[in-house]
C-alpha cells in the first residue's frame, strides 16, 4: 500500500459522491442525503486509515504523489501531507458528514438546518461534497500553482451555498465574499506566476536553474530581499483576507449572518483555516527573510484582531454574527502564534486551528438547531431555553466554554501555548492578547445567559430538545473537544516535527538565537 494514491483518492471520493447526488431525482430527498452521507463517511474512513499510517518520526511529507499536469509551465499534480496538513484534512473530513447528518428534518420539508423549503436539497449536498474535495486538495497540494487552483476552486461552491441557500441579504453577502476573495486571489496569482521565472534563474543568481512550482524546490531559493518582500505581501494579503484578519475581515460577519448554519461549520471551521495554514506553510518557508521583516506589523494586526473581534462580538444581537466576530478574535491568536516564531507558538497555533474548527462547528450546529425551532437567529427571541431543552442548552454551554478556553476543554491548551510562546519573544503582544481571554468570557457567558438562562420566553414554550439524529450530529464534536482538552499530546506529536522544520528554514535567514521552548515539544502540561 506504500504506492497507493491516498490523497488523490481522498479528493476523488467526495467528487464521485457529488456526481452521484447530482444525477438523482430531485424529489428523492432522503436518498440524496443518504448518498451524500455515505460518500462523506467513506471519505472519513479512508482518511482515518491514512492518518493511522502516518509516521510522525518519518520523512516530513508522506503519501506523496507527483505527476506532470502542465509540463510546458512546470506544473505538477503534486500531493503530500506533513503533520500540519494531515490534522487539517482530518478536521475537514470529520465535519462534513456531521454537517450532512444535521441537515435532516423530522417535522417538515425544509431540509433541516440548512435548506429552506422549495430549494434543491440535492444541489446543496453536491456543493458540500465539492467543497470537501477542494478543502482536501488545498491542504494536500505541494505544487504552489496547484495549491492556488484549489484555493480558488473553494470559492465556487461557497458562493452558490451563500447566494442560493442564505437569508434575505444572501446575494449581497455572496458577492462581497467573492469580491474580497478574488481580490486576494489575484494578488496571490501574480506572486505565484512571479516565482516561475525566479526559479528558472541560474543557481548563481539564487534560482534553481529550471522553472518549477514545487514547494520543496522553491523553498531552497535565495530570493532578492526586495523581491521577497513583494512576493510575501502578495501571498500574505490573500491569506489575511481568507483568515480573516482586521481590517480585511468584514466579509465574514455578513457571510455568517446570511449563510445556512451547517455550511458555516465548514466556512469558518475549515475554509478560513486555509489562510492561517498558508501563512505558516508558504509565507514563512518561501519568504523567511520577508516574514521576519513583516513580523512586528503582523503581530500588531493580530493583537488588533483579537481585541476588536472580541469587543464587536459583545455588542451583537444576531447569534451567527456574534460567533463570526469571536472567530475574528480567535484567528488573531492563531496568527500571533504563527509569527511568534517559536515552537510553542506555532504548535499552539496549529492546534488552535483544529480546536477552533471543532468548537465553532459545535456552536454553529446548535445555533442551527435553534433556528430550525424558533425561525430566528436574534438573541432577543430566546430566553430560558435550558428549562425546555436542557440537552440543547448543555451542548451549547460546553461548546461555548470551549470557545472561551476553559481549562479541561480543547481550546485552552492551544491558547495557552500561543500566549506562552509569544511571551518568550514578544512580551508586549502576549500581554495585550490576554485581554482577549477576558473579553471572551464576557461575550460567551452573556450570550448563554441571554439565550439559555433567565425567565422562559413565551416564544420558546414547547421547544423540542435535541432529537436522536441531532445528538449523533453534535456528540462526536463534543467528545473531541473534551478529549483534546484532557489529552492533546497525540495531536501535538503529529504537529511538532513539521513546526520544527518550519522554524529551521526560517532560522537559516536570521543568525540571531531563537527561543523555541520545550512545552510543545515535550507535551502540553499547562
From TrEMBL:
Return the broad EC class.
oxidoreductase
Q: Does the keyword Cell membrane apply?
A: no
Q: State the annotated membrane topology for this chain.
A: Multi-pass membrane protein
> What keywords appear on the UniProt entry?
Membrane, Oxidoreductase, Transmembrane, Transmembrane helix
Membrane spanning residue stretches: 6-24, 36-54, 74-102, 123-141, 147-165, 177-196, 230-252, 264-287, 293-315, 322-341, 353-372, 384-406, 426-446, 472-492
Question: What GO molecular functions are on record for this protein?
Answer: NADH dehydrogenase (ubiquinone) activity; NADH dehydrogenase activity; ubiquinone binding
Q: In which compartments does the protein localize? A: Endomembrane system; Membrane
GO CC field: endomembrane system; membrane
User: Is this entry keyworded Signal?
Assistant: no
Instruction: Name the domain of life.
Output: Bacteria
* A Pfam entry, by short name: Proton_antipo_M
* GO BP field: ATP synthesis coupled electron transport; electron transport coupled proton transport
Domain called NADH:quinone oxidoreductase/Mrp antiporter transmembrane: residue spans: 141-439
Q: What is its EC number?
A: 1.6.5.11
Q: Tell me the protein family, please.
A: Belongs to the complex I subunit 4 family.
Q: Could you identify this protein by its name? A: NADH-quinone oxidoreductase subunit M
Q: Which organism is it from?
A: Actinomadura litoris
What is this organism's lineage? Bacteria, Bacillati, Actinomycetota, Actinomycetes, Streptosporangiales
Amino acid at each position: 500500500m506504500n504506492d497507493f494514491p491516498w490523497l488523490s483518492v481522498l479528493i476523488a471520493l467526495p467528487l464521485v459522491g457529488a456526481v452521484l447526488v447530482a444525477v438523482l431525482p430531485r424529489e428523492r430527498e432522503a436518498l440524496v442525503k443518504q448518498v451524500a452521507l455515505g460518500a462523506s463517511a467513506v471519505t472519513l474512513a479512508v482518511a482515518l486509515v491514512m492518518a493511522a499510517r502516518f509516521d510522525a518520526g518519518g520523512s516530513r511529507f508522506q503519501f506523496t504523489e507527483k505527476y506532470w499536469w502542465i509540463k510546458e509551465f512546470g506544473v505538477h499534480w503534486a500531493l503530500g501531507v506533513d503533520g500540519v496538513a494531515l490534522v487539517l484534512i482530518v478536521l475537514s473530513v470529520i465535519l462534513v458528514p456531521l454537517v450532512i447528518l444535521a441537515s435532516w428534518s423530522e417535522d417538515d420539508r425544509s431540509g433541516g438546518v440548512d435548506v429552506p423549503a422549495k430549494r434543491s436539497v440535492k444541489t446543496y449536498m453536491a456543493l458540500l461534497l465539492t467543497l470537501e474535495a477542494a478543502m482536501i486538495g488545498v491542504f494536500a497540494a505541494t505544487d504552489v500553482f496547484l495549491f492556488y487552483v484549489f484555493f480558488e476552486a473553494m470559492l465556487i461552491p461557497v458562493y452558490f451555498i451563500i447566494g442560493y441557500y442564505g437569508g434575505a441579504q444572501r446575494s449581497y453577502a455572496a458577492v462581497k465574499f467573492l469580491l474580497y476573495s478574488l481580490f486576494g486571489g489575484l494578488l496571490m496569482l501574480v506572486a505565484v506566476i512571479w516565482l516561475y521565472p525566479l526559479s528558472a534563474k541560474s543557481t548563481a543568481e539564487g534560482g534553481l536553474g529550471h522553472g518549477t512550482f514545487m514547494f520543496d524546490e522553491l523553498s531552497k531559493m535565495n530570493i532578492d530581499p526586495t523581491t521577497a518582500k513583494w512576493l510575501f505581501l502578495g501571498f500574505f494579503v490573500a491569506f489575511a483576507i481568507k483568515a480573516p484578519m482586521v481590517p480585511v475581515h468584514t466579509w465574514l460577519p455578513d457571510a455568517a449572518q446570511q449563510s445556512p448554519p451547517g455550511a458555516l461549520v465548514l466556512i469558518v471551521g475549515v475554509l478560513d483555516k486555509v489562510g492561517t495554514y498558508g501563512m505558516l506553510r508558504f509565507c514563512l518557508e518561501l519568504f523567511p527573510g520577508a516574514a521576519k521583516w513583516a513580523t512586528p506589523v503582523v503581530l500588531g494586526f493580530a493583537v488588533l484582531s483579537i481585541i476588536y473581534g472580541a469587543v464587536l462580538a459583545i455588542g451583537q444581537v444576531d447569534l451567527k454574527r456574534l460567533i463570526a466576530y469571536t472567530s475574528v478574535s480567535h484567528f488573531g491568536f492563531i496568527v500571533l502564534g504563527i509569527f511568534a516564531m517559536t515552537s510553542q507558538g506555532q504548535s499552539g497555533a496549529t492546534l488552535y486551528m483544529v480546536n477552533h474548527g471543532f468548537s465553532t462547528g459545535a456552536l454553529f450546529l446548535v445555533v442551527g438547531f435553534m433556528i430550525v425551532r424558533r425561525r430566528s437567529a436574534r438573541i432577543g427571541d430566546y430566553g430560558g431555553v435550558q428549562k425546555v431543552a436542557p440537552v440543547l442548552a448543555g451542548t451549547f454551554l460546553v461548546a461555548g466554554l470551549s470557545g472561551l478556553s476553559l481549562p479541561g476543554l480543547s481550546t485552552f491548551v492551544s491558547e495557552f501555548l500561543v500566549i506562552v510562546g509569544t511571551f518568550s519573544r514578544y512580551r508586549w503582544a502576549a500581554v495585550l492578547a490576554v485581554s482577549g481571554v477576558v473579553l471572551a468570557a464576557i461575550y460567551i457567558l452573556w450570550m448563554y445567559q441571554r439565550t439559555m438562562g433567565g425567565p422562559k420566553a413565551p416564544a420558546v414554550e414547547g421547544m423540542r430538545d435535541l432529537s436522536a439524529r441531532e445528538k449523533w450530529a453534535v456528540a462526536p464534536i463534543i467528545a473531541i473537544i473534551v478529549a483534546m482538552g484532557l489529552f492533546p499530546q497525540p495531536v501535538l506529536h503529529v504537529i511538532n516535527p513539521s513546526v520544527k522544520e518550519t522554524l529551521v528554514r526560517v532560522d537559516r535567514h536570521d543568525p540571531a538565537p531563537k527561543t523555541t521552548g520545550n512545552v510543545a515539544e515535550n507535551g502540553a502540561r499547562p
